[in-house]
Design a protein that fits this description.
By secondary structure, the protein is α/β, with parallel strands linked by helices. The chain is 36% helix and 14% strand. The protein folds into two domains: 85 residues, Leucine Dehydrogenase, chain A, domain 1 (Rossmann fold), CATH 3.40.50.10860; 139 residues, NAD(P)-binding Rossmann-like Domain (Rossmann fold), CATH 3.40.50. Strands 7-6-5-8-9-10 form a six-stranded parallel β-sheet, with helices on both faces. Strands 1-3-4-2 form a four-stranded mixed β-sheet. The chain is globular and about 55 Å long.
Length: 273
């Protein structure tokens, strides 16, 4: 469920798993206006849905509409997945942090969140999930930089003293000595302006990551790769966040295979994309 949602590659991902596991099911995009979200969620049970994923702009509002929210989602402040129980009640969870961390681990098996300071750019729902995941993995310092400083400070206040909130003007200097830099803004997404940041202070050994997967290589990642940094794009985050969703819906933990990733990558570079 999203608004808009027809651009999403999630149906391709989940229908691949339906076929692979021999389940008689279909994953469909549901374009739901914000004002119709409550009615849409309550319609899931009578329509026979096992659950639903949520994307922009529904992740925070949905928290107030479901019957139960798990502790991780409460800490993050948003839900990305809903399970429909047999009695019709709805439970919400957030799998974005799982998706982000497992994407990085698959791409960089030797990566450690505790290797040094991490710079996170942005303070929206994606940034909250990224920060939570990094802290759970042992990050000692996160430099959270955002255009609206108050939003960054709010996340720091909620998630802990390891997060240091900084104004947007500090974004270039924040990279000095960092072990990792994460773009958790929408800048660099197809149709959006590129992330405005200078990378000259980012150590060559640092990892650059993006939560965006359209395009597969954002201007931020291209610039980092060109100067010698290792990079991780956002496609794996989408792929991996689907795994815990399937476990809660169907009791199955599907794999993120090379075949699946190739299928998704091909769809993202297709002429009609």
């Amino acid at each position: 469920m999203g608004w808009p949602v027809m651009h999403s590659r999630s149906p391709l991902l989940h229908n691949y798993w339906f076929k692979r596991h021999g389940l008689a099911g279909t994953y469909v995009p549901l374009a739901i206006r914000p004002e119709g979200l409550a009615e849409a969620l309550r319609a899931l049970h009578p329509l026979g849905f096992a659950g639903v994923n949520l994307t922009i702009p529904h992740k925070q509002h949905a928290m107030t509409l479901v019957d139960e929210v798990d502790p991780v989602a409460i800490r993050i402040g948003a839900i990305s997945c809903v399970v429909v129980r047999p009695d019709g009640s709805l439970t919400g969870s957030n799998n974005d942090c799982y998706g982000f961390i497992h994407n990085v681990k698959q791409a960089e098996p030797g990566w450690r969140a505790s290797a040094g300071p991490v710079v996170v750019l942005g303070a929206g729902g994606g940034a909250r999930a990224v920060c939570y995941g990094l802290l759970q993995e042992g990050a000692k310092k996160i430099r959270l930089v955002n255009r609206t400083l108050a939003r960054a400070k709010g996340i720091a206040a909620e998630l802990g003293s390891a997060i240091e909130a900084s104004p947007w003007e500090y974004r270039h200097d924040a990279l000095e000595g960092a072990a990792m830099a994460v773009n958790a803004t929408s800048q660099g997404m197809s149709g959006q302006p590129a992330l405005d940041i200078r990378l000259d202070k980012l150590p060559k050994g640092a990892l650059a990551a993006d939560i965006i997967y359209t395009p597969l290589e954002t201007p931020f990642l291209a610039a980092a790769r060109n100067r010698g940094n290792r990079t991780v794009n956002g496609l794996g985050m989408l792929l991996h966040q689907g795994r815990p969703a399937w476990k809660t819906w169907f009791g199955i933990e599907p794999e993120v295979t090379a075949e699946l990733r190739a299928l998704m990558e091909k769809s993202l570079v297709a002429p009609d994309n």
